[in-house]
Write a structure and sequence with these properties.
Elements (H helix, E strand, L loop, with lengths): L14 E3 L4 H7 L6 E4 L5 H5 L3 H8 L3 E6 L7 E5 H8 L13 E4 L4 H8 L14 E8 L13 E7 L2 E6 L13 H7 L11 E5 L3 E5 L4 E6 L3 E8 L1
Parallel strand pairs: 1-2
Antiparallel strand pairs: 2-10, 3-4, 3-5, 5-6, 6-12, 7-10, 7-12, 8-9, 8-11
C-alpha cells in the first residue's frame, strides 16, 4: 500500500555498484561512512517467498514478537503472525507515541524462520572480526524505528521503500525517545538548519544500505515494507 510520506529532496548517502572491490569497501566505508550498494546481491528468489500469501501460508499460525517503536525501552508483545498482518499492519498514526506503536522487526525465531532465511543472499562484504545475524521485518506505511545506534550492519529492502536518516557517532541527533520517526519528521526535521540535517536516502527493493559501527540512524517506511538486515556483531 502506497503511503503519503515523502521521499527526501536529495539523497546524500553515497552510492556504489557491484564493481566496488572489497578492498575499497574496507578503505572508504567500512569504518567511516554509510554507503548504498546496488546490484551486489540477487534476492529475486527470496523476494518471491516474501509475498503476503506465501508468508501467511508458511508462518500464519506461528507467534511473532513485536517491539514498541521507541528508543530506550522496548516492550515486547507476542501475537500470531496472521493477526499482525491482518489487524496490526497499518499506517502509522501521527499522534501515537512510540511506546504504543507495535512493530515487527528483529525478534525472529530462527528455528521457525530459518528455512526462509536460508534463501536470502547476504551482501558479499564483511567486517573483520564480526559474524552476521539476520533481522527480518514487515511494517506499515509511516512506521519506523526512531534514532538509535549499535554495531555495523547492512539493510536490504525486499518490498516497498524505506527512508533512512543517519548521523555520525559524534553528532547526537535531537529527538524525543518516545516519539516515532514520523512525528520527528513533522515536528523536528523540518526545523533543522541545513548544516544540522542528517545524511538521508530512500532505499528501494534490491538496494542495500551499509552503516558503520555506532552511527545513529532512524528509519521510516514509505510504503508497507518487507526488509531484512544483516547485523555484524
Amino acid at each position: 500500500l502506497a503511503g503519503t510520506v515523502p521521499e527526501e529532496e536529495r539523497c546524500t548517502v553515497q552510492r556504489a555498484d557491484a564493481s566496488l572491490p572489497y578492498s575499497l569497501f574496507l578503505q572508504r566505508f567500512a569504518f567511516s561512512r554509510p554507503v548504498i550498494l546496488r546490484g551486489v546481491t540477487d534476492n529475486s528468489a527470496f523476494r518471491a517467498l516474501c509475498t503476503r500469501e506465501k508468508l501467511l501460508a508458511a508462518f500464519g499460525t506461528l507467534p511473532v514478537r513485536l517491539s514498541t517503536a521507541n528508543t530506550y525501552s522496548y516492550r515486547k508483545v507476542d501475537v500470531p503472525f496472521q493477526e499482525y498482518v491482518e489487524h496490526l499492519l497499518k499506517p502509522q498514526d501521527l499522534t501515537r507515541l512510540g511506546s504504543d506503536t507495535l512493530y515487527f522487526f528483529g525478534d525472529n525465531n530462527f528455528t521457525e524462520w530459518g528455512p526462509l532465511f536460508q534463501q536470502y543472499v547476504p551482501p558479499p562484504f564483511r567486517i573483520p572480526g564480526t559474524s552476521p545475524a539476520y533481522s527480518f521485518g514487515i511494517a506499515g506505511s509511516g512506521s519506523g524505528v526512531p534514532f538509535h545506534w549499535h554495531g555495523p550492519g547492512f539493510s536490504e529492502v525486499i518490498f516497498g521503500r524505506k527512508r533512512w536518516f543517519l548521523y555520525p557517532p559524534d553528532q547526537t541527533p535531537h529527538f524525543h525517545p518516545n516519539e516515532t520517526t514520523l512525528a520527528w519528521l513533522h515536528h523536528t526535521y523540518l526545523a533543522l538548519p541545513p548544516a544540522e540535517r542528517p545524511l538521508e536516502c530512500t532505499l528501494r527493493p534490491g538496494e542495500v544500505l551499509y552503516f558503520p559501527d555506532r552511527w545513529w540512524h532512524a528509519t521510516l517506511n514509505l510504503d508497507t515494507s518487507v526488509f531484512i538486515s544483516t547485523f555484524l556483531g
